[in-house]
Specification:
By secondary structure, the protein is mainly β. It is built from 2 helices and 32 strands. The chain has a 4-stranded antiparallel sheet with strand order 1-30-29-28, with no helix packed on it. It has a 4-stranded antiparallel sheet with strand order 3-4-5-7, with no helix packed on it. A 4-stranded antiparallel sheet has the order 8-9-10-11, with no helix packed on it. It starts with 12 loop residues before the first strand and ends with a helix.
Length: about 450
């Protein structure tokens, strides 16, 4: 006798928005970086755009649907192509961006949207030596941002002061992505060396390390609970697969399953309120969704949203902004290749129009649990949750006070004979220090070659 598994989410279905509720006319970037190029919060939609001679992204108020003017203002402060963007979860008007110019910048967007091209950022964060591939805000502490660069380094930044908190240098190859756990006390990374690492973000030490997917293509990782990791990657035969891991033991996965043989990188998205994982492949037209459970078999396939239009990226709407009156448990903003952004709502079929307590438990609000200084000192707290029963109302916040910017290279050019002489001796000392460092590294390389 077959037994049907009981679940509230077995019949979740997806439906795209009508044409008049979409956003069109955007010149989407042609950059090949493995990021979403699309970010959304309760106020704005941001999309990375194609730009000549630098990097730019468009910011559109969510209420302003329809075709975007080709000359609409954009954020244009980067000197190289923009690689990734992310909205601050505790400040709806702040967005961070990273680019090919080795800079992370934070921008303050006016309430009504941009009125002209924005070239001056509120905060500039410099420290990476090569382009930066991904950025991620801390889930509980205000103004704490992580960035991963192609110099194999992860930086933790205090945006309030404009300074680095931690420099993580344990990686030996390209970092594919970074993810915080529920309270932000741990950071997990996936890398081109096929290893998964769980890191203490305060001091950069590796807590756990293990071998990930065997394939050579990009692998993605994310926390799906206090002691669970969910990864997507490829097998040696280039088959796409997902795996579930115990965060305390990365020697082997709890479960690994093949999905298909397509070539696009699979991006996982996790909804902690429903324990559902959504998988969207770059260049795919479909979005698969699964339900995670604590015990074996750990993961149940639910269904998939199918479409003939391939996706360039997805923006995940914060849970506090979903339409609870229509039992919408999640909404994504699908970025099409030709410049269309299409909202897709995932809903549970219910006849009642009353608030469904079982579908919408308290979710993450827009208030941080900690200040950056409290988090740096070692304090951990869970995110502050809010109820959606009476709808989400944004809390009043003080305006962000930007730290004083450091002088740029052009502004710090030595003036006069004394300054030039001092700069010359400083440069000689720096060259000597680097030569000593290089000699030490060469000795270490020889020692390792002899082992």
């Amino acid at each position: 006798m077959s037994v049907v598994r009981t679940s509230k989410f077995r019949h979740v279905f997806a439906g795209p928005a009508k044409q008049e509720s979409c956003y069109d006319g955007l010149r989407v970037t042609k950059n090949a970086n493995d990021s979403q190029f699309c970010a959304v919060n309760t106020k704005f939609l941001a999309v990375v755009c194609e730009a000549g001679g630098g990097g730019a992204f468009a910011v559109i108020p969510l209420t302003k649907t329809g075709r975007t003017d080709v000359n609409a203002p954009r954020v244009t402060g980067h000197k190289g192509p923009v690689m990734d963007i992310a909205w601050n979860p505790f400040d709806e008007n702040m967005i961070a961006s990273c680019a090919d110019d080795c800079m992370v910048k934070c921008w303050i967007i006016p309430d009504g949207g941009l009125v002209g091209n924005m070239t001056e950022s509120a905060v500039d964060l410099s420290g990476h030596q090569r382009r930066i591939g991904s950025i991620l805000w801390h889930p509980t502490a205000s103004n704490v941002l992580a960035s991963a660069g192609f110099d194999y380094v992860v930086f933790l930044w205090n945006v309030g002061t404009g300074e680095a908190i931690t420099r993580v240098e344990c990686h030996t190859d390209t970092i594919y992505n970074i993810t915080f756990n529920f309270d932000g006390s741990l950071l997990a990374t996936s890398s081109k060396d096929k290893k998964l690492r769980i890191i203490n973000p305060r001091d950069g030490s590796v807590v756990h390390e293990g071998q990930g997917h065997a394939g050579t293509k990009a692998c993605r990782v994310m926390f799906t609970g206090k002691n669970r990791l969910f990864t997507t990657g490829f097998s040696k035969m280039s088959e796409r697969q997902y795996a579930i891991w115990d965060a305390e033991d990365l020697t082997k996965p709890l479960k690994m399953e093949m999905i298909d043989t397509a070539s696009g990188v699979l991006f996982p998205f996790f909804d902690s309120n429903t324990n559902m994982v959504y998988l969207a492949g770059k260049g795919d037209g479909n979005i698969r969704y699964y339900e995670l459970v604590e015990d074996r078999p750990y993961c149940f396939y639910l269904d998939e949203y199918k479409s003939s239009a391939p996706q360039r990226g997805l923006g995940m709407l914060p849970k506090r902004a979903v339409d609870v009156t229509h039992c919408e448990v999640m909404r994504y903003y699908k970025l099409h290749q030709k410049g269309l952004v299409e909202p897709i709502g995932f809903k549970v079929p219910r006849k009642s129009e009353l608030f469904q307590e079982d579908l919408f438990p308290p979710c993450m609000g827009d208030q941080p649990s900690l200040t950056a200084e409290e988090w740096i000192s070692g304090t951990n707290k869970d995110p502050i949750s809010i109820s959606l029963k009476d709808g989400f109302v944004a809390t009043e916040k003080a305006a962000f006070v930007a730290p004083e910017k450091k002088a740029s290279e052009e502004e710090s050019v030595p003036k006069g004979e004394k300054e030039l002489l001092k700069a010359y001796h400083d440069m000689k000392a720096e060259i000597k220090r680097l030569e000593e460092k290089l000699a030490t590294a060469n000795i270490r390389i020889r020692q390792l070659e002899q082992q």
